[in-house]
Amino acid sequence: MSTSSNTSTSAPSRPSRPSRPSRRIDECHAHFECRLLDDRLVDRYDFFIWEVVAAQVAPTPAHPQTLHYTGDGVFMVAGEVIDRRHQFLPQMQ
After folding, report:
1. Is 3 left (phi over 0), alpha (psi -120 to 50) or beta?
2. Residue 49 and residue 36: Cα distance in Å, rounded?
């Protein structure tokens, strides 16, 4: 993969806002609007760094089933919720 230029060397000081509302997928629990922060590693590692400039999360369900891509065409669905908050220090809750 290659890119024609590295645009992140002079990243704007403020997140850019789209001129139109972003599209959302109703079945998604969370939506993130991002801007490209750094693409210097794209040519070497196919690696982008994004900055989240806006986020929305559905209030329900509290623990949605999430789908994760693990690579090589394989996906997994997150499993059982395990609550161990009682074992954490109070300042960590």
Report:
1. beta
2. 6
CA 15 to CA 51: how far, in whole Å? Answer: 8
This prediction's pTM: 0.48
CATH architecture of residue range(s) 7-92: Roll (2.30)
52-62 residue pLDDT tens: 999 988 888 88
Q: Which of 92, 14, 3 is nearest to 46 (CA)?
A: 3
With tokens 């109070």, the residue in question is: 90
Residues 66 and 63: their CA atoms lie apart, in Å, by 9
Token code pair at residue 81: 């919720």
Q: What is the DSSP letter of 85?
A: G
